[in-house]
Amino acid sequence: xxxxxxxxxxxxxxxxxxxxxxxxxxxxxxxxxxxxxxxxxxxxxxxxxxxxxxxxxxxxxxxxxxxxxxxxxxxxxxxxxxxxxxxxxxxxxxxxxxxxxxxxxxxxxxxxxxxxxxxxxxxxxxxxxxxxxxxx
Length: 136
Known about the structure:
globular
């Protein structure tokens, strides 16, 4: 049975999903810090098996960032990602009560832009903003 869970995910579950989608795993100590500093997260389980995850990071007032939206390959195309995004956007609506013009960002994986467009997201260039940049 598919279920949604809003409690904090374990590092092992995070790394499991991340590895399954091809992003690899992250250092457990660093990931624990990241998860502890997450504003909100949603995990999707099939019985006790984690199959999807997404989270919100940010300052709660001016900027929010949708991060780590992942669905393991064998469950892609079954609206699991849509469940994740709907839960994240419902939480964002709560933050919008504080600041209706709060800026919401996400970094779509290459080739996944159309998925996020269904939720109203635009590329930075089509929104009249500059290209996104990364410091690595």
